[in-house]
Write a structure and sequence with these properties.
By secondary structure, this protein is of the alpha+beta class. Helix content is 58%, strand content 16%. Strands 6, 7, 8 and 9 form a four-stranded antiparallel β-sheet that branches.
Length: 377
C-alpha cells in the first residue's frame, strides 16, 4: 500500500507541475502572445506574467513588436533607357498589430520583399540611368509611401526604406569611368590653360610695368644728363669769359714791351719745331732784327703803347661762377649778356686812353701768338 500511495503522490505532483506550466505563461518585454482556444483566436497576451486555461487555451505565436531590419538581395531592374541595374534595399519596419500580422498575411517579410521589388521596378522604370544614380532620396520616399500604404492592413508600419547600392552593368561602369576620366582631363586642361593665360597676363603686365619704369628712368636720366651738360656748358662759358677778362686785364696791367715779346717768341720756337711734319727748321740769321721787328709790329698790332701810361682796370665780375636755376636757354642768354657786358665795359675803358683803336682791333693773347709765328714761317 505504501508503494502504491507513493506512486500516486508522484503522479499527482507531476500533474500539478504540468498544470502550472500550462496555466502560467511569461511573455518577454516587447513581445505579444497570440492565444487560441480550440483553434480560434482568443486574445493577446501582453508582456509579463499571464494566466491561461490549461489544455484549452494555447499560445500559438509570439510576435516581436520591436523595429526590425530586413535586407533584401540585389534585384535586377530595367531603367527607362533599357539598361539593367542591380538594386539592393534595406527595409525598416515594425509590427503595430500582432493579430493582423498573424492572421492577415501568412509571411509578412516575404510579402514586404515582393512588394518592394515590384514598387522599385515601377519607380526606376520611369528614370534613366543617370537619374537613377542621383535620385536615391526620391526612390526611398516613393518606396516608403507605397509600402506603408500596402502594409497598413497587415499590421505593419514601414518606417524607412534605404537603397544600399545601385550596380550598373560592367560595360556601363567602364563607359562611366571613361567619361569621368575624360571630364577630369578636360577640367585639368581647362585649369592648365587658365593658369597659362593668367601667367601670360601677369608676365605681360610685368613687362609693361618694367618698360614703363625703364622709360621713365631713361627720361629722368636724360633730363639729369642734359641739366648737367647745361650747367657744365654754363660753367665753361663763364670760365672762358673770366679767362678772357683776366688775360685782357693782365695785358693792360703788365704793359709789355718789345723785349718781353721777343722772349715769348723764343719760348714758342721749340714748340713750333715739335710737330711731326717739321723735318727741317731754319733759324734766320737776322733773328735779332726779326725779333726787333716782331716786337715793334706786335706792339702796333696789339695796341700796346711804347710809353707806359696809367691804365684803368676792367671790372672782373664775380670770382665764383653763377649757375642759373632757370632753363638752358635763359642760362645761355644770361651768360652771353654777361660776356657782352664785360666786353663793352672793356671797350669803353680802352677808348679813354691812347692806342685804344689798336687794342680793340688786335684783341688779347691769340693775336700775339699768331704775330709771333709769322717770322718762323
Amino acid at each position: 500500500m505504501s508503494t502504491a500511495l507513493l506512486i500516486l503522490f508522484v503522479l499527482l505532483v507531476l500533474f500539478v507541475v504540468v498544470l502550472m506550466a500550462k496555466t502560467v505563461r511569461i511573455v518577454p518585454q516587447a513581445r505579444a502572445g497570440i492565444v487560441e482556444r480550440f483553434g480560434k483566436y482568443k486574445g493577446t497576451l501582453p508582456a509579463g506574467l499571464n494566466i491561461v486555461v490549461p489544455f484549452i487555451d494555447k499560445v500559438r505565436y509570439l510576435i516581436d513588436l520591436r523595429e526590425q531590419v530586413v535586407s533584401f538581395p540585389p534585384q535586377p531592374v530595367i531603367t527607362e533607357d533599357n539598361l539593367v541595374v542591380s538594386i539592393d534595399t534595406v527595409i525598416y519596419f515594425q509590427v503595430t498589430d500582432p493579430v493582423a500580422a498573424t492572421y492577415e498575411i501568412a509571411n509578412y517579410i516575404q510579402a514586404v520583399e515582393q512588394l518592394t521589388m515590384t514598387t522599385l521596378r515601377n519607380i526606376v522604370g520611369g528614370m534613366d540611368l543617370e537619374q537613377t544614380l542621383t535620385s536615391r532620396e526620391e526612390i526611398n520616399n516613393g518606396l516608403r509611401g507605397v509600402l506603408d500604404e500596402a502594409t497598413g492592413k497587415w499590421g505593419i508600419r514601414v518606417n524607412r526604406v534605404e537603397i544600399k547600392g545601385i550596380d550598373p552593368p560592367p560595360s556601363i561602369k567602364d563607359a562611366m569611368e571613361k567619361q569621368m576620366r575624360a571630364d577630369r582631363d578636360k577640367r585639368a586642361l581647362i585649369l592648365s590653360a587658365e593658369g597659362q593665360r593668367q601667367s601670360a597676363i601677369l608676365t605681360a603686365e610685368g613687362n609693361k610695368q618694367s618698360a614703363i619704369l625703364n622709360a621713365e628712368g631713361e627720361r629722368e636720366s636724360q633730363i639729369l644728363r642734359a641739366q648737367a651738360e647745361r650747367e657744365a656748358a654754363i660753367l665753361r662759358a663763364q670760365g672762358e669769359g673770366q679767362a678772357i677778362q683776366t688775360v685782357f686785364q693782365a695785358i693792360h696791367d703788365g704793359q709789355p714791351d718789345q723785349a718781353l715779346l721777343a722772349y715769348q717768341y723764343l719760348q714758342m720756337m721749340p714748340k713750333i719745331a715739335e710737330g711731326d711734319a717739321n723735318k727741317v727748321w731754319v733759324i734766320p740769321s737776322e733773328i735779332t732784327k726779326a725779333l726787333e721787328g716782331l716786337g715793334s709790329s706786335m706792339n702796333e698790332l696789339a695796341g700796346i703803347p711804347r710809353d707806359a701810361t696809367p691804365r684803368t682796370r676792367v671790372d672782373m665780375g664775380p670770382s665764383e661762377p653763377q649757375i642759373p636755376e632757370s632753363s638752358a636757354a635763359l642760362g645761355q642768354r644770361e651768360t652771353s649778356e654777361a660776356v657782352q657786358a664785360a666786353i663793352a665795359e672793356a671797350e669803353s675803358a680802352a677808348q679813354t686812353r691812347p692806342g685804344a683803336s689798336a687794342v680793340r682791333n688786335a684783341g688779347p693773347g691769340p693775336s700775339v701768338g699768331e704775330g709771333g709765328s709769322t717770322p718762323t714761317q
